[in-house]
UniProtKB/TrEMBL annotation:
The lineage of its organism: Bacteria, Pseudomonadati, Pseudomonadota, Gammaproteobacteria, Alteromonadales. Its cofactor is Mg(2+). Gene3D superfamilies: Nucleoside Triphosphate Pyrophosphohydrolase (3.90.79.10). InterPro entries: Mutator_MutT, MutT-like, MutY_C, Nudix_hydrolase, NUDIX_hydrolase-like_dom_sf, NUDIX_hydrolase_CS, NUDIX_hydrolase_dom. It comes from Pseudoalteromonas lipolytica. This is 8-oxo-dGTP diphosphatase. It comes from the Bacteria.
Length: 133
């Protein structure tokens, strides 16, 4: 039987050589680790609409446009995810953890100081290539 895959829209929020990241609540899947804001794509919803909805809910940003970076499938054992990762550099608003979670702007060359879920290793590699770090 094929495993159910959870489809997730993930936003790499970029401004002036920095990314906005959030800390996942301890009680959630991969809790306590840092993440790029985002969440599940609902039935019948486009990835871009999910991205807009999740980033407004989680970090209070209005996404005007985004660009696909990559799609990653990762099996955590307890859960299988498909991350549809987009670079978000066209947005309005001031980013903050709008659901009470910790959130911060981190310089691209300091990303390695933060622990992310295993699926994010590839994302971070790709970001480094893109911004020539
Ligand atoms: N948002 C986000 N999720 C990620 C990342 N990396 C990663 O493996 N995930 C996984 O993707 C899944 C989606 O997550 P989510 O918990 O944000 O979903 P959601 O916002 O819809 O929240 P919910 O769980 O309250 O419904 C989680 O299993 C999470 O562990 C990442 O960088 N950002
Ligand atoms: Mg989320």
């Amino acid at each position: 039987m094929t495993k159910k895959v959870v489809h997730v829209a993930v936003g790499v929020i970029y401004k002036d050589q920095q990314l906005f990241i959030c800390k996942r609540p301890d009680d959630k899947h991969q809790g306590g680790l840092w993440e790029f804001p985002g969440g599940k794509v609902e039935q019948g919803e486009s990835v871009f609409t999910a991205l807009q909805r999740e980033l407004l809910e989680e970090v209070n940003l209005t996404v005007n446009g985004s660009e696909e970076l990559m799609v990653i499938e990762h099996d955590y054992g307890d859960k299988c995810v498909r991350l549809d990762v987009h670079i978000v550099d066209d947005f309005t608003g001031t980013a903050h953890g709008a659901e009470g979670q910790q959130g911060k702007w981190v310089a691209l060359n300091e990303l390695d100081d933060y622990s992310f879920p295993a699926a994010n290793v590839e994302i971070i590699e790709k970001i480094k290539q893109r911004y020539e770090l």
